[in-house]
Amino acid sequence: MNMLQQSRNQVLAQIQSACALAGREPDSVQLLAVSKTQPSPVLAEMYQAGQRAFGENYLQEALEKITALKDLDIEWHFIGHVQRNKTKHLAENFAWVHGVDRLIIAERLSNQRSDSQAALNICLQVNIDGQDSKDGCQPEEVADLVAQISQLPNLRLRGLMVIPAPENTQAFADAKALFEEVKSQHAKPEDWDTLSMGMSADMTEAIAAGSTMVRVGTALFGARPKKAD
Ligand SMILES: *Cc1c(COP(=O)(O)O)cnc(C)c1O
């Protein structure tokens, strides 16, 4: 077994024991492999180990990998900050966008998604713990945004995405409460099934609080080189 296979198996085992501890079904949490800064051959190897969903933060880097790996059946997730002038590339090349935090961004993504593609899956990013420097809408804005974005034709609004400060486990509970609370604002509540929270360092706590998708980089691929962003 190679190293990527081993680390993936370890992460899957950690997800399963977190689910067991929380009394949740083992398949109720999806693993998103965060592959930013990793080169395409490393992603291909992780794919061979069984991974299908990959998360990328930097558009240009992601587009190069999407082209290089176009023969693989990868589900591409964009988890970085969404800039208004980049929405067309996101709408055309990704299956999921997690960092939507304004109506105008969602409208552009819906307009730019081709009718021949499946609807683009969206998570609304919420600044759940009031951080100064963080992206994400305010918790008070979520109900209105859910009501509006869930009407857009070429999107499927799947849920919320949060990146709380390290060790702030209360923020996971707050995100779960908000996730349950705003479901009734959704035009298609059956689409509302995703709570994207938890990373390498805190996936167990996130799963205990109700995460359905953990975004894991370091624990799968090892430490990343430092990159200014
Ligand atoms: C980099 C990143 C992750 C993964 O972080 P790790 O600590 O390496 O697991 C998850 N989510 C987002 C939004 C990221 O930018």
UniProtKB/TrEMBL annotation:
<feature type="domain" description="Alanine racemase N-terminal">
    <location>
        <begin position="28"/>
        <end position="225"/>
    </location>
</feature>
<comment type="similarity">
    <text>Belongs to the pyridoxal phosphate-binding protein YggS/PROSC family.</text>
</comment>
<dbReference type="Pfam" id="PF01168">
    <property type="entry name" value="Ala_racemase_N"/>
</dbReference>
<dbReference type="GO" id="GO:0030170">
    <property type="term" value="F:pyridoxal phosphate binding"/>
</dbReference>
<comment type="function">
    <text>Pyridoxal 5'-phosphate (PLP)-binding protein, which is involved in PLP homeostasis.</text>
</comment>
<dbReference type="InterPro" id="IPR029066">
    <property type="entry name" value="PLP-binding_barrel"/>
</dbReference>
<dbReference type="InterPro" id="IPR001608">
    <property type="entry name" value="Ala_racemase_N"/>
</dbReference>
<protein>
    <recommendedName>
        <fullName>Pyridoxal phosphate homeostasis protein</fullName>
    </recommendedName>
</protein>
<keyword id="KW-0663">Pyridoxal phosphate</keyword>
<dbReference type="InterPro" id="IPR011078">
    <property type="entry name" value="PyrdxlP_homeostasis"/>
</dbReference>
<feature type="modified residue" description="N6-(pyridoxal phosphate)lysine">
    <location>
        <position position="36"/>
    </location>
</feature>
